[in-house]
Amino acid sequence: MAATDLAATRRQLLESGRSGKLDAPGLRQVLVDLHEFWLTSKGAELGVRPQSGYAIVAVGGLGRGELLPFSDLDLILLHDGMPPDEVAEVADGLWYPLWDANIPLDHSVRTVPQALQVAAEDVSAALGLLEARHIAGDEDLSTLLISGVRQQWRMEIRDRFPAVVAHAQDRWRRGGDIAHRAEPDLKSGRGGLRDVQLMGALAIAQLTDGMASLRPDSPGAGPQVAYGRLLDIRTELHRIAGRPREQVRAQDADEIGAALRIGDRFDLARVISDAARTISYSTDVGLRTAGNALPRRGLAKLRRSPIRRPLDEGVVEHNGEIVLARNAIPSKDPGLILRVAAASARTGLPISASTLSRLADYAPELREPWPAEALSDLLVLLGAGHHMVDPIEALDRTGLWGRLLPEWGAVRDLPPRDAIHTWTVDRHLVETAAHAGSMTTRVSRPDLLVLGALLHDLGKGRGADHSIVGAELAVQIGNRFGLWPQDVTVLSDMVRHHLLLPTIATRRDLDDPATAEFVADTLGHNRVLLELLAALAEADSLATGPGVWGEWKASLINELVRRAFRLIDGGALPRPEALTPEQVALADKGGFSVDIVPADGAHTFRVTMVAPDDSGLLSKMAGVLSLNGLRSHSATVQSHAGSAVNTFVVVPLFGSPPEAGLMRQQLMAAVEGKVDVLARLDAREAESPIPTIASVTAAPGAAASAGSTDPAIDGAGHPKNAVPALFAVAPPRVIWVQPDMDATGPDPGPDPGEVLMELRTDDRIGLLSRVSAVIERHGALVRWAKVTTLGSTVVDTFCLQMPDGGEDARAALADDVIGVCPPPQPRSDDDGNGPDAYGGTARSGVPIS
C-alpha cells in the first residue's frame, strides 16, 4: 500500500465515522491497525525484518494503541550500529512517503545507547519512551530498548522524581484546571490524559499501582473510565475540527456531545468536569504515594518507620497523611468520616486513599438526626476556610460526601449557565463556604453562616427556581443535621433570600424608605438573618468570579443593611441560666466539687465544677479541663452562696474523661498555686500533634509540592516536624454592649455598672482559660458567662464588672483578649470590612471594638 493510499483510507475512515458507522474507540483501533499494517509492510520492503538489526518502534498514541484521527505518528527507527549510509537509506525510504502523503510525523533514528542517553537527560523523552511499543523488524532490538528504558527509569527515579513533579506542575500551569476551564485542554491540563500517563510512568517505577482505584459507585466510577471518556471526547474533537486540537471550543461542544450521545454543551461540560476531577484526585494520591515510596539511601535506610501521631478519636497522622487509628472500627463509628475530614482540614494533611476506601466500605450511615458531635465536626470542616476544599473533594471523589449529602448529586459537576461563574455549581458552593469561613466572627451564628453558604445554590439543576427549591432542601437537611427548629427556619430563609440583598441594593433606590422597609419586612425583622445574609452575599460574590465583588457593590449592600438594621428591633440580650437544685445544693455545701456525667452525645460529657469564688478561678477551671484533653463546647459560669458554679459541656480529645476525684485534686492544686495552669497549657500546645496549616499549601493541586528537596519537607510535600497551628481563618473580634439606662421592657440588659463583652474567634487549646486570665489581670470581675463553641468558632459572652468602665479601659482589655486568640491568616480578598461594615453596632449604640 502506498502512503497516499494510507492517507486516502484515513480520510474515508473519518467520513464513515461521521455517518455513525464507527464510534470513537472503534475509529482509534482501526487507525492503529491500519498504520501498523502500512509500517510493517513498508518496513519489510526496506529490509526491516526480524534479525535485521533494524526495528520500528512507536511511541505516543500509536505506542499506546490509541491513535487519534490527526495525531502525529511518533516513530523511532532503531538500529544496531549499522553503517550511516545504509541507515540513511532506510530512514529516507520510511519517512519520505509519509511526508509526501501529508501524514504528520515525529521521527528519530537512534541506537539503543543513544535512546537511553536521551531518556536520561530529558524527562519528556523518558516519559514518551516508557510507552514505546514494537511495530516491525528486529523485536529483540526493540525489547532491549524498552526494557533498558524501564530499568533505567526505576534505578534513577529517586533523583528524577522532583523533576518529574516540576514537569507536571509546569504543564498544569500552561494547561490550567480542566474541570473549571471554559475551553479545557484535554491533553495537558490538570486532570487530563497526560496525568493518567504520568501515573503509568510512576507505576513502571514501582512507586504506585497506577491510577488509584475508586469505588464503582463513586463519581466518575474510576480513573480508567474517566480516561476513556476524555479520550473519546478528544477523538470526536479531532474528527469534528478536521485537524489536531486539544481544547474543546464552545462552538464545537454541542456537536461533540451529540456525536457521543452525551447531550448538549452543558452536559458535555459536566462529563468533562467529572472525569477531570476524578483523574486529578487520583493523580494527587499517586504523587503522594510515589513520594512516600521513594527508595532511601545511606543513613535514611536506618530510620525507623514514621510515628503515628493522634489527632482525634480514632484519627492519627502517619507519614504525612490522615489515617485511622489501629483501634478504630469504622463499622461501629458513623461519625468517623467527618472526624477524619475535620482533622484533614485542621492540619492541611491529605486523607490517605486507603482510609477513604476503608470508610467507604465499612462506615455506616449516620442516624437522623445527626449526633451533636457529627454536626460539630462538620462545622469544624466548613470553618477551616480554603483548607476544607481538598478533604471535601476527596470525600466526593470516593462517594462519601454524597453519602452525607445525598442532595449533592444534582449539582455535582453541574456547569454554570452564566459565563461570569468560574466554578461548577458544587465547587462554587464549597468555595462560598470557604470564603464564609473567614467571616464567621462577623456574625452571631457562625454555624448557620457556613451551613447556609454550603447550601445556598443546592436547588440548582432541578428545573425550578433554585432559591425556592433550595429552601425546601435546607429544611430537609437542617432536620437531618439535628438543628433546632428555629435554626432550621433561619437556614431555610438564608437559602430562600440569598439573592435579596444584592438584587435590591443594585436595582432599587436606597434613599427611598420603602426599600429598607421591604427588606426588613421580607426577613421578618430578624436581625440575625439580616447579618447572615450580608456576609453570605459577600462570600457568594467572592466565590463567583473575579470582579464580582467590588467597592461599588459592597458599598450599596452595606448601606442597605445599615438602613434595614435601623428598622429592626434587636433580640433579647444574653442572660445567665438559672441554677438547678442540684447545683444550688453543691454551692450551699461549699468547698471543692467536680461532677462528670454523660451528656447527649456518645462522646460528650457535662462537667460541673464548684469552688470558693475568688479571682482567677474561671481561668484555672478551664485550664484544668484543657490539660486533661477536654474541649469545651459550651460553658455557663455563675455563682451562689460564695461559691462559683461553672458547668462545661466537653468532648474528650481521645478516650474518656479522667476521674472526677483526680480533676478535683488538680483544681485544688491550681487554686492553691501549686500548678501554673497557663504555663502548662503553653507547653501542651507546643507539643500538640496537629501540624501547622501555614506550612501546607491549600490551593488546588497542593500535592504538586511532592518531591520537594527541602530537608524539612517529606516526599509527599508535607512538613516532617510540624508545630501547632496558632492562627485563625477569621479575625478575632470583641463586641461591647453597655446597659441602656432608658431601656424598658422585660430585658433592659445588664445591671448598672456591668457591661457585656462578646468574643468571637477561632478556638485554640485553653482559650477560655487564657481569656479569663486576661480579664482577671485587668481587675474585671466575671459576674456570669456563657460560652459556646460552634465548630471551630467560639462565641463567648462575659458579663463584667470593671473597675474602670471607660472606653480606654475597654479598648485595652479588648486588645489583650485578642492577643491570646489565634491570629488570622492573611486573606488576599480581605478589604478590612468587619461587622461594622454592615451597621454592626451593639443594641445600645456603642460601636463594636
UniProtKB/TrEMBL annotation:
Record function comment: Modifies, by uridylylation and deuridylylation, the PII regulatory proteins (GlnB and homologs), in response to the nitrogen status of the cell that GlnD senses through the glutamine level. Under low glutamine levels, catalyzes the conversion of the PII proteins and UTP to PII-UMP and PPi, while under higher glutamine levels, GlnD hydrolyzes PII-UMP to PII and UMP (deuridylylation). Thus, controls uridylylation state and activity of the PII proteins, and plays an important role in the regulation of nitrogen metabolism.
Q: Which protein family is it in? A: Belongs to the GlnD family.
Q: Which NCBIfam families match?
A: PRK03381.1, UTase_glnD
Q: What is this protein called?
A: Bifunctional uridylyltransferase/uridylyl-removing enzyme
Identify the residues that the record assigns to the HD domain, covering every copy.
Answer: 425-526
Which keywords does this Swiss-Prot/TrEMBL entry list?
A: Hydrolase, Magnesium, Multifunctional enzyme, Nucleotidyltransferase, Repeat, Transferase
What Gene3D superfamilies does UniProt report for this protein, alphabetically?
cca-adding enzyme, domain 2
EC number per UniProt: 2.7.7.59, 3.1.4.-
Q: Which organism is it from?
A: Gordonia sesuvii
* Region called Uridylyltransferase, residue ranges: 1-310
MF terms from GO for this chain are: [protein-PII] uridylyltransferase activity
Summarize the activity regulation. Uridylyltransferase (UTase) activity is inhibited by glutamine, while glutamine activates uridylyl-removing (UR) activity.
Domain free text: Has four distinct domains: an N-terminal nucleotidyltransferase (NT) domain responsible for UTase activity, a central HD domain that encodes UR activity, and two C-terminal ACT domains that seem to have a role in glutamine sensing.
